Amino acid sequence: QNNTYDYITVGSGPGGGPLAANLAKAGQSVLLLEAGDDRWTALDQEIIGWAFLAFNHPAQRWDYFVKYHSDNELTLQNEHLTWRTTDGGFYVGTDPPSGAKELGMYYPRAGTLGGCSTHNAGVALRPSDSDWNETAANMLKYFIQLENDHTVPKGTPGHSFDGFLDISPYRDQRVGIFEAPTHMTTAGHRVDARNPVIAVLNATNSDGSKKYPLTLRTESYVTKILFNTTGVNSETPQAIGVEFLAGKSMFSADPRFNASVKGTKMQAFARKEVIISGGVFNSPLLLKLSGIGPKDELESFNISVIVDLPGVGSNLQDNTESGLNTKAALNFTSLGPSCTFAFPPDDPCLTAWETGVGDGGPYAQAAVPDAIMLKSSVAALNERDIFMWGSTNAARGFWPLSAESQPPADPPNTWSYSMVKMHVHGKLGTLNLTSNNPQDMPEINFKFYEDANGQLDLQAMVEGIEFGRKVVNSVPTPIGPFNETSPCPGNVPCDTKDYILKQTWSHHATSSCAIGADNDPLAVLDSEFRVRGTKGLRVVDGSAFPVLPTFMLSLKAAGCDFGGSR
Ligand SMILES: Cc1cc2nc3c(=O)[nH]c(=O)nc-3n(C[C@H](O)[C@H](O)[C@H](O)COP(=O)(O)OP(=O)(O)OC[C@H]3O[C@@H](n4cnc5c(N)ncnc54)[C@H](O)[C@@H]3O)c2cc1C
């Protein structure tokens, strides 16, 4: 049958893309199904500094709206709460026009070949060993296989120089101020999960025939995992394939979605395994729609229960984020050419990037150039847990850009510190179905800071803001003194904790299909990423772990116990 493969992988982000490519390189026939399409050499993907254009691009963005609190009174005070206006547009703020419907906090995602690694900021921090407590392997070896290290001389032990992921300029776990490591080439071109897929698809033998048995189907949104529940081993359901809708924009998070365009229902089958890599929101959504999840929830939507797995969609967590915004006494001016950060043909920065002149110019630089790594007083396992960076753009969260909702222009004396709380303590987040229609979006609530664990995260964030204040307050004239605009306008003492609580944002969600031990009732996966209670089904993506760890998971899942994998 020509719709049968050894493996089917669903989703081509850091979890699914490298995994499908590596399985095919190992001689397995693989069907890679991706809901979005391939944007080929889109400049907004390739220039990391243009990431904000990519994550707002209607051809690849998936608009998720989430809640951060159970108490909607807190949500209503978030300055970036997004509403759908009666004319179908967006309003962002706390004073919506009459008739507007509350959507939630905007949470960018990518529905495109390469997933969110095509629009993210490319920061490539080496994960802490403690991230791997549940996986029985030494994961550092997968990091080493993954990287093409530009930071140390070739041949340096403990580093690799032929992995597919270009990492510059450093990787380790120190506390201090560093140049941020970024997954891009030394010429400033983004490297992402799309690269290994395209490399394997394009590889040919000397006679010109296709080298590896990888089939990519874009615009193929998987709606259901198919199981064999009959026969000798019927007590353990075996995943045998998937059902999908072939067509453009089949998921309602896609801004181009049109409910009246139905798509074509198709099926494909796997001889060995179905691997789900739809990302932190779509993997648990797909499991639930397929009958794997909390029994009561599935039954309330008339979904036949294949395995009662209460952990699917729970344990959701995220790096909580906030920022310190100030104005310096002097304006900041660029020492280099004036970049447009858009698509005009005569942008001097684009010419420099294309030709490599002057080290490629500003567009060849990392989007997040400086990494301030701190350890708060409540850091888990005594490991660094705050990642901050300074910028001349204000630190603020995300919202969908449209004619009506544009960020305010930042004055030229803007100085900010954005802050990400790593190794979060809070794990109360949930993803629940809203219907049994696979095209409908789930309901997501991170429930930040709602228990004692979450309060520790809040405390760490306060310390991050205080650190930022200490730095700006130590800057002498003529650049200082700095005037704080938030959390505490005019440097007048205020309740920083309350500000963070109400104005939080985030965009690194994980763990909605968590790996866990046999005795953990909320464990969804075992340490080999197999979905508990099933056969032939694994989840390999950010729903188990964050992005760089996800690239590493992808290698472990493909059995890459060999040298460089480019
Ligand atoms: C704006 C932004 C900036 C970020 N910056 C950084 C950063 O600097 N550093 C960092 O480490 N992390 C960053 N991240 C997070 C990081 O990009 C993600 O954690 C990572 O991409 C997750 O990989 P994934 O494979 O789990 O899922 P994704 O990257 O979300 O990929 C999932 C893929 O599956 C496809 N898909 C989903 N459902 C289906 C389905 N049913 N059928 C078919 N296909 C499907 C989607 O279209 C998508 O292509 C950022 C994220 C965002 C949104």
Automatic annotation (TrEMBL):
FAD binds at residues 120-123, 542. Pfam families: GMC_oxred_C, GMC_oxred_N. Gene3D superfamilies: FAD/NAD(P)-binding domain, Glucose Oxidase, domain 3. This is GMC oxidoreductase. It comes from the Eukaryota. Transmembrane segments: none annotated. The keyword Protein biosynthesis does not apply. GO terms for molecular function: flavin adenine dinucleotide binding; oxidoreductase activity, acting on CH-OH group of donors. Keywords: FAD, Flavoprotein, Signal. The keyword Signal applies. Residues 213-319 form the Glucose-methanol-choline oxidoreductase N-terminal domain. Residues 429-553 form the Glucose-methanol-choline oxidoreductase C-terminal domain. Its cofactor is FAD. Belongs to the GMC oxidoreductase family. InterPro entries: FAD/NAD-bd_sf (IPR036188), GMC_OxRdtase (IPR012132), GMC_OxRdtase_N (IPR000172), GMC_OxRtase_C (IPR007867). It comes from Hyaloscypha variabilis (strain UAMH 11265 / GT02V1 / F) (Meliniomyces variabilis).
